[in-house]
Amino acid sequence: MKNVLGREIPERLAERKLRLFEGAFATTPSGRKADRPQKVVKLGENKVLSSIEQAIEKTGLSDGMTISFHHSFRQGDRLVNRVIDTCARMGIKDLRIFPTALFPVHEPLIRHIENGVITRIEGSMNGPVGAFVSQGGKLKDPAVLRSHGGRWRAVEAGDVKIDVAFIGAPQADPYGNANGINGKTPCGPISFSAVDAMYAERTVVVTNDLAPYPVYPFEIQQGWTDYVVVVDEIGDPDSIASGTLKITRSPTRLRIARLAADAVVASGYLKDGFNFQGGAGGISLAATKFVGEEMAKGGVVAGFAMGGGTKLIVDMLHQGTVRTILDGQAFDLAAIASLRDDPNHVLMDPGHYANYDSRGCSTYMLDAAFLGATEVDLDFNVNVNTHSDGLLLHGIGGHQDVASGSKMTVITIPTLRGRLPVIVDRVTTVTTPGEVVDVIVTERGLAVNPKRKDLAERFQGAGLPVRTLEEIKQEAGGFTQPPRKPIFGDEVIALVEWRDGTIIDTVRRVVGWE
Amino acid sequence: MKNVLGREIPERLAERKLRLFEGAFATTPSGRKADRPQKVVKLGENKVLSSIEQAIEKTGLSDGMTISFHHSFRQGDRLVNRVIDTCARMGIKDLRIFPTALFPVHEPLIRHIENGVITRIEGSMNGPVGAFVSQGGKLKDPAVLRSHGGRWRAVEAGDVKIDVAFIGAPQADPYGNANGINGKTPCGPISFSAVDAMYAERTVVVTNDLAPYPVYPFEIQQGWTDYVVVVDEIGDPDSIASGTLKITRSPTRLRIARLAADAVVASGYLKDGFNFQGGAGGISLAATKFVGEEMAKGGVVAGFAMGGGTKLIVDMLHQGTVRTILDGQAFDLAAIASLRDDPNHVLMDPGHYANYDSRGCSTYMLDAAFLGATEVDLDFNVNVNTHSDGLLLHGIGGHQDVASGSKMTVITIPTLRGRLPVIVDRVTTVTTPGEVVDVIVTERGLAVNPKRKDLAERFQGAGLPVRTLEEIKQEAGGFTQPPRKPIFGDEVIALVEWRDGTIIDTVRRVVGWE
């Protein structure tokens, strides 16, 4: 079967019949959400356990089950490997893991894929696990990649049934109220796991800081929690940032950021009540900074800035350039402190922020957003999952959610990475369709989606270097070296879901390179 | 059928097969909760409507449907009457209303019961509507009374399916985020309606203060809201208090409060981390004040105080006698201000606080609670719904939830009201079973449930006047005038649910008095 973008999609994933992507807002779900387990903990029952082993025993975790995790500790996570190691030691196999995202720190999972402890993965794979899976023949079923909102939707819709949710919690009380912004090693919001906690058959909060009742804010609630495991370490908050948080110092990238900011200024959206997504990549950060300076200069106050929270937008909040931050994850320690201390820095779960199957997302209120790409193509389609070598190396994050919601979605990219072209005829993988991408900004000028003639006119009126994507691609072509083209096998190693649960693309096994 | 307390219970309520009460924690639910509607609002859709009429049209509200409301404005509510008047004007009839509670201000609903606009009521009835229903022959099915937690449970379990939820919101944004602690006329938490918003087929937020996006805290979320109606008035916050908030000045009642406080001191529970429920009745307030003084004297810091929030416990929070307030409703404006300004005054929805069908309630963490009664009997059963004249005049509130959770549940009552006895052989209606009542404190001494020999010994050791309920009853008997005994008809006019969804008692029609 081919979807509306001409991408070949299989009919089924195990028992699940797949639906084809038909457009960013083509799906109108009806019927009912999945039901949640009806369970009680009665007066006087104790939930506190002293080890992961005990939690595995108590929850009845066994072969073939699905277990879930959040990624709020990012590269500092210590929980996923530990739980899987423990499962392996206890002889449990054939697990489907359902993390929000994996990072290079999770490379040890490769061994557990090889030995059959893990046979399926639904979740983002940033780095080595994705590269390993790309080789093909590793998993029983294709991996499934989802956006932040798409993952929440999938649980609520019953597409993924979680047997046991493991939730790393920097602070928890003995009854299972927990959050990520307090405690000995705060990692920022853990509300990614709220939907897991509500829908899983069993919910296990794992904490290194058991505090007296009640622990609040209630990101995870007692009413959803079966057990609380106390361990010595769940993660290293110094590794949250993953090195993404430096404003770029590259002159090329600064030029892109400047142009992106100028585009926002010229767009007409930058007025009181302007709502924007900051982003955490080097170019996005710089662009956000420039926009903030324009706002301060013009006396414009934003309605809200959407996180991932960073020191940059926290400073804007404190300076009064931003009225509110809505935040689902923290990218640095300043954002965590602000979530804790500033009532206008508001915790928001991914359901609120991005769930397609809801009566409206916060992303739909965005005026402008800066997002990245590994590749873009002449139809404005964006790839953030694979590189031009075909390897699956990144998750979707909020890319689809933000791009589809924001009135002006700006993709900021250099035309070259090393000597590889970033603008291509056809992206290796479509993560986000061109229909929701408005502007692509490069160091050689900016290209406007033909749907947005209004923006093109405004940019031209402001004297910005508006060009076609073809022109930019061609000009950059003089400096590129043809990329090492992957040879794909037949095996689909991953499905890329659009945020409504349809399949927008697949990733195929890489058998070699031309 | 008779339940374990010997109370006669009908087998069915319309299509719903009734379950008999078997004990406070006898029920172990399994299976699944009810499913929620799968609905989307897509990018760019507008939710704002300009009138209740328009909301009724848009939601398709029609004959036979169930509509719900919260009671956070209490006696100041302006929404319920207005919605029902509008329905009546539009020719809609046969409605089942599902308010959290009705107050005397809702007396105009009687006309709508008489003319068939309202044919069923599930919800607390404080005052005239209850008295009217007590006459019999007014409703198609018996009314159903539930506790705060019991109502939440009933929605989640699918016992009550809501067609349209109307949620009065002192502040809302155009996307349907709303709360009760901000805005022009704040009424305190409106999270009673959160479960309605999540489960109703259609959710309508009605506000008199439409503020720029985003409005937070998110008591009601955009993702649950179909429409936002802007009107000029939803309620009068000056009427929230309903006159319940004065510390008693009656010497008899002060004596009861003093003795209740002394019992807490003697109980052994009053140490660091002590958790208590304050209450808002005159005796409870005084008892709370006395306990607070003991805590301050002894340097004891409470873990949490549970609201209804009052200035009294807010003062304790600010003085450092209480670490946290967990609050589901506000009884005065000081509590609302504190909810807004103090991060340790924490909003809590009734699901968190009291839902039996959850993995644990906040009430289960209580050490002590002061509660009232209209009658108690020699088995320690408590009635808060009817008076000895048989009329249904009060709701359950959190009585069942708190009594069943607290380690030491203290009922504070005078032995006489006017010349009517409060301690009786058998309560007219059982709201809360004796098995969860520990101590009954009167101006003639205190009685301890025989199950709690430990407490009786401690009280005796502290020199408190421990007596049997029989003794107290007999002594008071010398001053009473036999109550005007109601003559009950066969018709069951109301069912009293225990918090687990079983039926603990019924209320019958009053056909006259002996």
- Oligomerization state of this entry? homodimer
Roughly what is the average pLDDT of chain A, rounded to an integer?
Answer: 96
User: Which homologous superfamily in CATH is the superfamily of the domain at 243-477 in chain A?
Assistant: Glutaconate Coenzyme A-transferase
CATH domain class name of the domain at 243-477 in chain A: Alpha Beta
> What's the N-to-C terminus distance of chain A?
27 Å
CATH architecture grouping of the domain at 243-477 in chain A: 3-Layer(aba) Sandwich
How does the major sheet of chain A shape up? 9 strands, mixed
Q: Low-confidence stretches of chain A at least 5 residues in length (pLDDT < 50)? A: none
Question: In the CATH scheme, what's the topology name of the domain at 243-477 in chain A?
Answer: Glutaconate Coenzyme A-transferase
Question: Any idea what the radius of gyration of chain A is?
Answer: 22 Å
Taken from the alpha-carbon principal axes, the silhouette of chain A is: globular
Q: Greatest contact pair?
A: A-B, 60 and 60 residues
Strand content of chain A: 15-25%
Helix content of chain A: 25-40%
Query: Reading side by side through the largest sheet of chain A, how are the strands ordered?
Result: 18-17-16-15-19-22-26-27-28
The helix tally of chain A amounts to 14
Structural class, from secondary structure content of chain A? alpha/beta
The total strand number of chain A stands at: 30
